[in-house]
Structures are given as C-alpha cells and as structure tokens.
Amino acid sequence: MRVIQLQRSPKTYTCRSYLLLGDWNQIDAVNTLIDPGTDGYIMDEIDTIYTGCGKVPVEQVLLTHNHFDHAASAELFKRKYNATVYGWVPGPGVDVLLKDNQVIKAGDDYLDVLHTPGHSSDSVAFYCQSHKLLFSGDTQLRIRTAGGKYTREYVNTLITLAHKDIELVYPGHDDPFNHDVRAIILETLQNVRNSEII
Predict the structure, then answer these.
(1) pLDDT tens across 53-80, in order?
(2) Which runs of consecutive H residues, i.e. helices, occur in 68-180?
(3) b/e per residue, 71-88, with b = 16+ CB within 10 A?
(4) In 72-140, where does DSSP find H-type helix?
(5) Confidence at residue 92, expressed as pLDDT on a 0 to 100 scale
(6) What are phi and psi of 38, to 5 degrees?
(7) Are strands 133-137 and 124-128 parallel, antiparallel or unpaired?
(8) Which of 18, 35, 90, 165 lies at a 20 to 30 A Cα distance from 44?
(9) Strand pairing of 18-21 and 149-150?
(10) Is the distance from CB of 74 to CB of 48 less than 8 angstroms?
(11) Are 60 and 82 in contact (CB under 8 A)?
C-alpha cells in the first residue's frame, strides 16, 4: 500500500488528506481517500497522480469524523468520481456507516476501523496491521501534562491504541511521526488518568 500525503490549501482551514493506492496500481486495488477536507482543493493534485490504468482515481472516501474541515467536500468527490463515502454517523454525502472492528480494503491492503471517541463521539481511526500504521484523524495522541477534563470514552480509546503495534502515525493536522509511538500514547494515557475524568 502506498500512502500519498496531499497538499493542503494555503487559503482554507482544512485537514491533512491521504490517498491510498496499491503498490503497483493493481486492477483490484481500491483507491481510497482518507478525509477529503473542506473544499475540492486536492482534486487537481489527485488528477496528476497515476492511480492505475482505467481506474477511478478515488473509489472510496473514509471519514475519520464528520467535522467540516475533514468531511465538508465529501459530496464533491461523490459527484466527480462516484466515490462511496464511509462515516461513523449519517451526514452529507455519507453512503455507508462504519462499524467498530470492521475491515475495509484500501489500496492493496486492509484497514481496521477503530471507534476512537474523545475528540468527537463519531471519531474513528484506521489501522493497517501489516504496515503498523495508524490514520488517527483528530484523536489526540500527545498530551504532555496532566490537567483539564477528559471523558471515560477517551481513556478507553487510548487504552485500545496502546495495545496496537503502531510504528507510524498519520494525524489529521500535524506531520506524520514514527518515533516512540507507543511511549507517546502511554504517556498521554497516564497524563489523562491524572486529570479530571468526566
């Protein structure tokens, strides 16, 4: 599976979008976009990428959650590419509702759907076991100090992620990182547990 981090619009508040392709653009690979963003800015870049002979550049769109900066342009991708849109909750453009622990083919590999409430009740992350990578959306993995208020559901999210073998994280807004991932999650879990749980 190849992961292409697409460029963000310099004029619009939006998320990071990731295009997932098969290693060799095989005919049975499923070209997948994670979080289309606020507008159609990334469409021009997608159209310059070779995504396979005779293949639709974006066959499916996976939403990490339904906030506008991640999901607002989903309808545009449905109209242009006839893409199927997956989300945890109903929303504009959503065709199929995701389920916890569901497995979805993306590129030439598979992603596990992990319900990760915390940032929002409909947050999900996508985990590729074979590549040990996680698309975390806006699920906060790095909290450096105790303090503040966090939900019990967020504590459970961190416990779930701490039990996964993750070596590379593709966040919803920050740069990808591949160092001390489990240690970072465990530190965050400790700091959250030492804060107010509501």
Answers:
(1) 989 999 999 999 999 999 999 999 999 9
(2) 68-71, 74-81, 152-162
(3) bbbbebbbebbebbbbbb
(4) 74-81
(5) 87
(6) -75, -40
(7) antiparallel
(8) 90
(9) unpaired
(10) no
(11) no
